[in-house]
Design a protein that fits this description.
Two copies of one chain form a homodimer. By secondary structure, chain A is of the alpha/beta class. The first copy, chain A, has two domains: 140 residues, Aspartate Aminotransferase, domain 1 (Alpha-Beta Complex), CATH 3.90.1150; 268 residues, 3-Layer(aba) Sandwich (Aspartate Aminotransferase, domain 2). The radius of gyration of chain A is 23 Å and the shape is globular.
Amino acid sequence: MRRSGRGPRPADDHGRLTVDAELRGDVDEATDVDLDVADLHPAVDDPVLHSMNFLNEVAQRYPAAVSLAAGRPYEEFFDVADLHRHLETFRAHLADDLGYDPEQVRRTLLQYGRTKGIIHHLVARNLAVDEQLTVDPESIVVTVGCQEAMLLVLRALRAGPRDVLLALAPTYVGLTGAARLVDLPVRPVAGGPAGIDLAVLRAELRRARSEGLRPRACYVMPDFANPSGTSIDLADRRRLLDLAAAEDLLLIEDNPYGLFHADDARRVPTLKALDTRRRVVYLGSFAKTVLPGARVGYVVADQRVRDSDGTVGLLADQLAKIKSMVTVNTSAISQAVVGGALLAHGGSLVAANTRQRAVYARNLRHLVTGLRHRFPAPSPVRWTVPAGGFFAVLRVPFPVDDAVLRRSAERYGVLFTPMAHFYDDTAPVTALRLSISAVTCEQIDVGLDRLAALIADESARTASTPTVPA
Amino acid sequence: MRRSGRGPRPADDHGRLTVDAELRGDVDEATDVDLDVADLHPAVDDPVLHSMNFLNEVAQRYPAAVSLAAGRPYEEFFDVADLHRHLETFRAHLADDLGYDPEQVRRTLLQYGRTKGIIHHLVARNLAVDEQLTVDPESIVVTVGCQEAMLLVLRALRAGPRDVLLALAPTYVGLTGAARLVDLPVRPVAGGPAGIDLAVLRAELRRARSEGLRPRACYVMPDFANPSGTSIDLADRRRLLDLAAAEDLLLIEDNPYGLFHADDARRVPTLKALDTRRRVVYLGSFAKTVLPGARVGYVVADQRVRDSDGTVGLLADQLAKIKSMVTVNTSAISQAVVGGALLAHGGSLVAANTRQRAVYARNLRHLVTGLRHRFPAPSPVRWTVPAGGFFAVLRVPFPVDDAVLRRSAERYGVLFTPMAHFYDDTAPVTALRLSISAVTCEQIDVGLDRLAALIADESARTASTPTVPA
C-alpha cells in the first residue's frame, strides 16, 4: 500500500511491514495507476503470499494481544555484543587456524566472496558434531537463509511444465511460496498423525505419474514439522528412503527445529544421516539456532549431475550457478557472525543452545499441561503433544478461518495461526497452530485463558447456527 | 565438479569457487550419476551462466597474471575494524536518533526483520544528498545486493510467455542471467557510441510488439555502463523518458558506478531524478561504494499498482511479497554496516569515497595515456575514453574469443574480458573490456605492455590466416 509517511518505522513484532488498512485507497483514480496486478507474475496475487501478509497485519494491528502465532526464536538471550564477539572469533579463525595473511582476511570479510560460501567447513563440522552426518564441504551451498536454499533447489528442479513437487501436508508456507515463484505446482501428500503415510505418498506419486506429470521431489520436515509439530519415527525414515530409492524420487529434507528435542538423548537421526544413496537434499537454517537477523542457511546437495559436456559434478555446483544470479554470494559479514558462533562452541549448536532448549522444552510442557487443565476430558478440543520444536496443533469443533482470528485478536487478545493457511486449497480446517518459542510461561497462561474463552464462545456460536440441509 | 578435498579453501581473487579442470571426470560411471543437467532448469546449462564460471576459472588458474578483468572495487582502503565501527554507529542511531529502547535495538539487529529493510530512510537520505533525488522511503526495497533487486523486478514483470525484456547491448551478464532464471527473453537494443540510439530502441520496441510480444521494460545503465563504459547525455536521457512515456514502457535504471565520475562537477542527473511520470524503476548498489561483502543493494519502485481488490499500492510492496519468498529479508547485520557507513558521512557516499574516486580517476587517466602511448595513430586498435567508472573497451583487429583469453593468460600473463561475453549470441566480437578498479598504475603499465605484445602477435596470426573464400 502507498504510505504518505516518510519517517523510518521500527521493525514490528513480526518484523514485516504490512498493509495499513486505514491507508488503503488513498490513491484510487484510474489515471494514477501505472500497472495492474494482473500484468505481474501470478505469484504476487497468490493466496499463499497474501496469507503471510494477512497474518503479519493482524499481529501488527493488535500489539497488545498475546502471540501464540509468532514462530521466531526466543530473544531474551540475544545480545548485540555477540555480533562483535563472533566477528572477531571468525577473523581470528581465518588468521590463526587457516593461516590467512591480513590481506586475505580483509578480502574474505569485505570483498565479493566464494559463491558457495566461506563457512562451509564449519557447517560440515557442525553436521558431524550435532548430527553424526559426514558431508563433503564442497557439497554445501551457504545461502541467504533457508528460504534462498529452497528457491535454488526448486528453481533447479523445475525444468518444464510437466514437473510437480510433492509435499507432506500441511506444508510450510515458505515452501509453497518459493514453488509459486518458479511456477512449480505443489501436490499435497497427507502426512497424518505419524508425520508420513507411505502408502499415501506412493499412491500420490503414482497418480501424478499416471497423469503424465513428473514429480521432481518430495518435501518433508521430519522433525517437529512446521506447522504440525509431528516427527517421523526411525522405522518410517528408513522406509521413506527405501521408497525414494525404489521410485527414483528425491527427498528435500528441511530441518530447522531438529536440535530442539525436549530430550536430547532421544533425538532420531536425520534422513540425510541415514541416506546412503544420495536421495536426500538437506536444507539447514541458522535462524533458530544462532540468529534470524544474520539470514544464513545452507543446502547440502551431494547428488551427482552429468553436465552437457559429459563431465559429472555436484548438484551443489549447479545450485551455485543459480545463486550467482540470485544473490551472488551470502553476506560475508553474516557468515562470519554465524561462523564465530559455531567456533565458540566447538561446532556444536546443541551446546550453544542449552539455555534456549531448556526454555522451549519448559514452554512446551507448560502449554500441554495448560491445555489439559483447560480442556479436561471428555472435550471436543484435542491437541498434539510434540516431543520438541516450536509448535503444537489444536483441533477445535469449528472451522478456524481468518474471521475467527480477527475476532480472537480484537475481542479476546490472543493470536494463533489458522491451520487453513498451511493447506493449498480453500477447504475449511477445524484446527489452529500454537507456537511456544517467543513467549514466557506467564504469557502462555494468559494466552490459553483467552483462547479457552474464544473456543467456548465460537463453539456455542457454531452449535447455534442452523446447518444447511444436505 | 566433485572435489575430494575437505579442507576449507580461501576465497580466490575473484571470490568464486570454480571448476578445477584437473579434477574433472574423477567420477564418470553411469551408475554414479543421480541427475542429468538436461533434467534441470535450462538456465543452469545456459552460456550466460557458464560464461561467469569460465572467466573465474581463468582468473583462478593464472593468479600471477595482471588482471584487467576484475570489476571489484579497490580494496586497499578496506579495514575489518570498519565493520565494528559501522555496526556501533548504526546501533547508536537506532537508540539516539530513532529513540529505540534496548529491546527494540536488539530486536531490530538480531531478529527477523522488515521485508523492505531497516535502512530505507538512510537510503532515501543518500539519494537526496548525492543524487538530488527525492523518494518516498516506502518505495524502497533493500535487497541482497543489486542482483536480488534485478531478480525481484524481472520476476514481477514476467507474467506470461509473451513477455520480453529490452536491454541496451552490450549488457551486464547479471541482468541476462537473472532474466534466464525467470524465463524472460532478453531482446538486445544496440546502444552505439552514445550509449543509446533512440531510433533503434523505438524500432526494436515496435518490432517486438508487431511480433505479438509484450516488452515489459528496457534495462539501461546510463552512467559508465558495464561493460561499455559509455554514458548517456542529458538530452538523450530526457528524450528516453519522453519515449518511455509515449510508448508506455518502463525503464530499469541500474546505477552502480554513477558516483565515480572523474570530475564530480560534471555529473549528470540520473534518469530517476528526471522522472516525473514514474517510468523508472531505479536499482542501486552499495557493493562499489561501501563494501561488496555486505551484499546490500536496493530498488526504488514507486510505480502505482492496482491490486485485485481494487486498492492501489506501490510496486515496491509487490516486490516485497516476492522477496519474502526469496530471502525473507536482507541481513540486518549487513544493513547495519551499510547504514553505519552512510551515517558516518552525513548520508553522502560521494564524500565517503573521496580517496577511492581519486584512485579510479587516476587509473582511468593512466590507462588511456598508456593506450595512446602503446598504440599511436594510425593504429587499428581503438578505445573508448569514459568520463568515469571502472571500464573501457578496446577494439582490436581480430575476434576476441575465449581461446584468445586463455592464450593471453598463459603466455602473456594478462587478463581481460572478451566483449563477446556481453552479447547474447555467438557472433564474433573484435573487442575486449579493460577494468581499472582493482589495480595500481604499475599493474596497468605491466598489463598494457603484455596486452600490446598479445595484440601484435594475434594481429599477425590473423593476418597470416587465409580467409575462406566467400
